[in-house]
């Protein structure tokens, strides 16, 4: 891992080079000079094209430990806390089921100080970015949190699942990675080729075609710990440089950090296996099927006739953003008839978790 050094100059963070960027300062930021470009003197040590051939039949060719550590980044806000509690409940329930290769669990808390869930959920506290550096885009703390956690924590498993608080495990999750190929979920809205002029600011032509960049974010991804240790600092650096570039920030918006991970992975020559069965996203995905995770990032709004009214508050709704200041109540009403199975399953699983988590209503 690269060494992280806090210099004596106020407002500066320095991240020194890895084996891929020998002796280079990957990140240099001054709160007094936030509009200056971040270091562009990143040395190129790649000698091969980053496009890796995908084996026709990917099999578990490795022996030994295939367990993966489940890690999610979180804040100490009530909105984050209640989602983490539900997520951890379902992790514990499916972890020991047949077919699971789930190992330990860590909530990487990037608030800089412990909170009142430390005894309930295994937690590792890391520092947030320096004040003002995220410019209101709190997700920029995610790669920085992983850099710190990977450097400082003892992680027994050889693989890591990067997850999020609004993930619910529907069934036991095996290790979907194969050798040097991590597993990721293809997002329909991550389209590097449609933004080639922007992407080339961070992924030069000598690295290969833009098609080398996978249409993914960092989550869900199952990846070798050793690979993530190399990618994470680059992911942080690229994401911060993107946020510092007005054109890129405007084009990528709330998915900027996802592009940051996708580009950083490609810079390290890492190609992901794209698993559509990794997760579903109600209300657009209608059935749970044999998928592994429900991601409830979208609001679910329906009429009492079971008709989707997306973009308009429904007569029945479940939207996590309705509960920014505290947890949803126990025993939420189930959706009306004709609402897709995925939405019904989501609400039932939320209700089961809240019914069984102690002190749910104390607004922890």
Automatic annotation (TrEMBL):
> Which organism was this protein described from?
Aristolochia fimbriata (White veined hardy Dutchman's pipe vine)
Which Pfam families does this one have? HPAT
The identity of this protein, by name, is Hydroxyproline O-arabinosyltransferase-like domain-containing protein
MF GO annotations = glycosyltransferase activity
Keywords per UniProt: Glycosyltransferase, Membrane, Transferase, Transmembrane, Transmembrane helix
Q: How does it sit in the membrane?
A: Single-pass membrane protein
* Cellular-component GO terms for this entry: membrane
Q: Where in the cell is it found?
A: Membrane
Could you name the domain of life of the organism this protein comes from? Eukaryota
Q: Which residues form the Hydroxyproline O-arabinosyltransferase-like domain?
A: 68-361
Asked if the Swiss-Prot or TrEMBL record annotates the protein with the keyword Transferase, the reply is: yes
Q: Which InterPro entries match?
A: HPAT-like, HPAT/SRGT1-like
């Amino acid at each position: 891992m690269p060494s992280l050094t806090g210099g004596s100059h106020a407002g500066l963070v320095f991240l020194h080079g890895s084996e891929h960027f020998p002796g280079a300062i990957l990140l240099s930021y001054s709160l007094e000079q936030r509009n200056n470009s971040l270091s562009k003197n990143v040395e190129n040590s790649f000698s091969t094209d980053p496009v890796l051939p995908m084996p026709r039949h990917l099999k578990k060719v490795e022996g030994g430990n295939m367990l993966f550590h489940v890690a999610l980044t979180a804040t100490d806000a009530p909105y984050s806390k209640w989602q983490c509690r539900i997520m951890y409940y379902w992790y514990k329930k499916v972890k020991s089921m047949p077919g699971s290769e789930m190992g330990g669990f860590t909530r990487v808390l990037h608030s800089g100080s412990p909170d009142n869930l430390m005894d309930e959920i295994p937690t590792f506290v890391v520092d947030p970015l320096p004040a003002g550096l995220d410019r209101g885009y709190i997700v920029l703390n995610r790669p920085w949190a992983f850099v710190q956690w990977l450097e400082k924590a003892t992680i027994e498993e050889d693989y890591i699942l990067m997850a999020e608080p609004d993930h619910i495990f529907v069934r036991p999750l095996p290790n979907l990675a194969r050798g040097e190929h991590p597993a990721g979920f293809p997002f329909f809205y991550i389209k590097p080729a449609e933004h080639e002029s922007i992407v080339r600011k961070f992924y030069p032509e000598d690295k290969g075609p833009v098609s080398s960049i996978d249409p993914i974010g960092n989550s869900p991804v199952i990846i070798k710990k050793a690979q993530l240790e190399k990618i994470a600092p680059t992911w942080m650096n690229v994401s911060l440089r993107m946020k510092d570039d007005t054109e890129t920030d405007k084009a990528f918006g709330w998915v900027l950090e996802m592009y940051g991970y996708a580009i950083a992975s490609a810079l390290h020559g890492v190609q992901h296996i794209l698993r559509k069965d990794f997760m579903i996203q109600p209300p657009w995905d209608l059935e749970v099927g044999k998928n592994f995770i429900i991601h409830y990032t979208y609001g679910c709004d329906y009429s009492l006739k079971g008709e989707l009214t997306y973009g308009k508050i429904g007569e029945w709704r479940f939207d996590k953003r309705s509960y920014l200041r505290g947890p949803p109540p126990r025993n939420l009403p189930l959706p009306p008839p004709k609402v897709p199975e995925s939405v019904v399953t989501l609400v039932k699983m939320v209700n089961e978790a809240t019914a069984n988590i102690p002190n749910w209503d104390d607004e922890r």
